[in-house]
Amino acid sequence: MEPQERIMDTAFGLFRQYGTRSITMDDIAERMGVSKKTLYAHFTDKDDMVLHTMTRFVNLVHAECQADHAKSRDAIEELFLVMEMLDRRMRNMNPVMLLDLQKFHQKAYQVFMEYRNTHLANMIRENLERGIKEGLYRPDIDIKILTLYRVYGCMLCFQPEAFPGVSDMPKVQNVLLENFLYGVASAKGYKLIEKYKQLSQNR
Questions:
Q1: Is the pLDDT of residue 87 over 80?
Q2: Which run of H or of E encompasses 50?
Q3: How far apart are CA 147 and CA 174, in angstroms?
Q4: So what's the pLDDT on residue 176?
Q5: Contact between 8 and 60 (Cβ < 8 Å)
Q6: Which of 83, 66, 45 minimizes the C-alpha distance to 176?
Q7: What percent of the chain lies above the pLDDT cut of 90?
Q8: Closest CA to 32 of 13, 49, 10
Q9: Calpha distance 196→178 (Å, rounded)
Q10: pLDDT at position 89 over 80
Q11: What are phi and psi of 93, to 5 degrees?
Q12: Can you give the pTM of this predicted structure?
């Protein structure tokens, strides 16, 4: 792994846990056991580091989504694979991170929003189209409305105030996606959801 990637991994681990505002370049340097000079050899400033770190994160998520699409046998398995990936990627993520991006790191926030509005929306729409072709989703669903509904549903894990008393945001994401699937599934798809749920629980 390249030095810049190691720095971004360390930085993202701290940002994910504490948000970006409360983490300084000193904190990152100390965690890595290097000098701040080493960090500034790779990044102009903290804002530049946040931008590169978030860009790398969304690119990794997008690449994994594409890989899950390629190896999945059907639309429903694809979403179960994506659920597992998001659980790994977003575990222990502090929801304040997105708020910090919005307030203090506009370029990084735009990277995240562009991912949401393009790649994520396209992936959801294509999955719905695929599920209909495979007979796993009901043919009468409104793809445009449900794509937007699902896109905004994905953002709810960054709004813990919407789920008072619930601290496990990845679990919220999984529950919402599972119920979304039941809502669009045909009778054939419903049986397949049950099958994949059982396989997932047995892992």
A1: no
A2: helix 46-71
A3: 17
A4: 87
A5: no
A6: 83
A7: 69
A8: 10
A9: 11
A10: no
A11: -80, 125
A12: 0.88
Secondary structure element (H or E) that encloses residue 82, with its range: helix 75-90
Q: Which two tokens stand for residue 197?
A: 């749920």
Q: Are 28 and 83 in contact (CB under 8 A)?
A: no
Which DSSP symbol is given to 115? I
Q: What is residue 85's three-state secondary structure?
A: helix
Tokens (6 digits) for 92: 């222990």
Query: What does the alpha-carbon distance between residue 32 and residue 157 come to, in Å, rounded to a whole number?
Result: 29
**Residues 154-184 pLDDT 10s:** 887 777 787 888 777 777 888 888 899 999 9
- Residue 83 pLDDT > 70: yes
pLDDT of residue 172: 81
Is the separation of the CB atoms in 93 and 120 below 8 Å?
A: no
| Cβ(18)–Cβ(53) below 8 Å | no
Alpha-carbon distance 196 to 198, whole Å?
5
Q: Which residues contact 88 (CB under 8 A, 6 or more apart)?
A: none
- What H or E segment, with its residue span, contains residue 25? helix 25-32
For residue 162, the model assigns a pLDDT of: 79
Whole-number average pLDDT of the chain = 90
Record the tokens describing residue 102, joined without a space.
């919005």
